[in-house]
Each structure stands twice: as structure tokens, then as C-alpha cells.
């Protein structure tokens, strides 16, 4: 391609993706605007990872009563350093078996910002569709310092046949508030990720 052709193609490509392409250059480095944009997106991603879920606000936005639980990770720092602790309930957590097929767990994950922004609307939609799918609601649980597999522990404790784990996804440099849904049928101890269906972002 000629230089003239590339000058037409690159702006078209850049307009169609959030990836960092066609950034241009200033001497041997990036233009100031693209460097500042990268720094801003990196700061947003860090903020998302360290953000804490406001459970009171989330509960108020949900259309059904919820139970609050937490993982074995004592705080955010331990949660980030010990991913394994985020997969299991705290020993102090009390959950009773509940009638119903489908458990919905809302976990802060790696972006509490995503959960705060989107979880209530997604849960409201799920609740309106559960009966249409021939299922009954077990309960809705909010879990803090939670990894995806924590949903298995909650499901075993409540007797649910299936769990939908709504969780804040690991932020990238194009989205810091991405919510994922991980669906597991008959979760058990050490359920492999291959048995989960994921609707990401």
C-alpha cells in the first residue's frame, strides 16, 4: 500500500474498534493526546479493580430481598493477592437450604463499578424471564470479594439446581465496567470452568 492509501485506511480502522491502532506519532514517541488517553484508561482500570461494592445502594435498586455473604478473603488486598480465597464462602457465612431451582449470585469480582452500574437491571430482567423458562427462583445473593466459583459454594449451601453468577469482569483498557454472567448447572465441589456457560461483557 502507498502512504496515501494507508492515510485513508487507518482512520477507517480506528473508527471501527476500541483497540489502540492508528495512534500516530510525535517524533519517536506518541502524540500527547494518545499518551494521556492511555494513562486515563489505565487509571480507570486500576480504580475498577480496587473499587468496593456499595451493597446498601445495590439492595435498594433490586426488586427482591437479598442475602449478603462474603468470601474467605478478609479485604480487597487479600482478595487480589489470594484468588483462591475468593472462590469459597467465609466460615462465618450462614445460608439455609431454600426451595427453588435457580440461584442468582451478584459478585463484585474485579470490577465493583460494573456490578454497581448494571447488576440491578440484569437481575430485574432475569426475574421476569425465570418462570417463562420453567424454573423457580431459589434466591438472590450479593457476595463481596467474590470470584466466579463462589457461586458453586452458595448453590451447594442453598440447594439450588443451577446458579447464575453475575460478576464484574477484569477491566481492560477499553472497558472498566464490564459485567459477565457465568451459568452453571448442578454445581459441585471443584466444578471445572469447562462446565460453565459464560455470557461476557
Helical segment count: 6
Helix content: 25-40%
* Unreliable spans: none
- The tally of strands reads 6
Query: Averaged pLDDT, please?
Result: 89
Biggest sheet strand line-up:
1-3-2-4-5-6
What's the helix-strand series? HHHEHEHEHEEE
Q: Which band does the percent of strand residues land in?
A: 15-25%
Estimate the global geometry from the Cα principal axes.
elongated
Q: Over the alpha carbons, how many angstroms does the gyration radius reach?
A: 20 Å
Coarse structural class = alpha/beta
Largest sheet: 6 strands, mixed
Assembly level? single chain
Give the N-to-C terminal Cα separation. 36 Å
Summarize the structure.
By secondary structure, the protein is of the alpha/beta class. It contains 6 helices and 6 strands; from the N terminus they run H-H-H-E-H-E-H-E-H-E-E-E.
Question: What report would you give on this structure?
Answer:
The protein is of the alpha/beta class. Helices cover 36% and strands 18% of the residues. The chain contains 6 helices and 6 strands. It has helices spanning 3-15, 32-50, 55-61, 76-81, 112-130, 150-158; strands spanning 67-70, 102-107, 137-144, 162-168, 179-185, 196-199. It has a 6-stranded mixed sheet. Helix 5 links the parallel strand 2 (102-107) and strand 3 (137-144). Helix 3 packs parallel to helix 5 (112-130). The longest helix is centred in the first third of the chain and has 19 residues, at 32-50. The protein is elongated.
Amino acid at each position: 500500500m502507498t502512504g496515501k492509501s494507508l492515510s485513508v485506511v487507518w482512520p477507517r480502522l480506528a473508527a471501527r474498534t476500541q483497540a489502540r491502532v492508528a495512534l500516530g506519532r510525535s517524533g519517536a514517541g506518541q502524540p500527547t493526546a494518545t499518551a494521556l488517553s492511555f494513562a486515563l484508561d489505565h487509571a480507570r482500570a486500576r480504580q475498577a479493580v480496587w473499587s468496593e461494592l456499595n451493597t446498601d445502594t445495590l439492595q435498594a435498586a433490586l426488586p427482591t430481598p437479598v442475602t449478603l455473604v462474603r468470601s474467605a478473603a478478609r479485604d480487597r488486598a487479600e482478595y487480589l493477592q489470594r484468588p483462591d480465597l475468593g472462590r469459597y464462602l467465609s466460615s462465618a457465612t450462614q445460608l439455609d437450604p431454600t426451595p427453588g431451582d435457580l440461584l442468582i449470585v451478584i459478585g463484585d469480582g474485579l470490577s465493583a463499578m460494573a456490578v454497581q452500574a448494571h447488576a440491578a437491571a440484569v437481575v430485574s430482567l432475569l426475574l421476569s424471564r425465570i418462570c417463562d423458562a420453567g424454573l423457580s427462583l431459589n434466591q438472590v445473593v450479593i457476595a463481596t470479594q467474590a470470584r466466579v466459583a463462589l457461586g458453586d459454594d452458595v448453590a451447594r449451601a442453598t440447594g439450588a439446581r443451577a446458579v447464575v453468577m453475575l460478576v464484574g469482569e477484569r477491566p481492560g483498557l477499553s472497558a472498566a465496567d464490564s459485567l459477565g454472567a457465568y451459568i452453571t448447572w448442578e454445581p459441585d465441589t471443584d466444578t471445572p470452568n469447562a462446565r460453565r456457560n459464560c455470557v461476557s461483557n
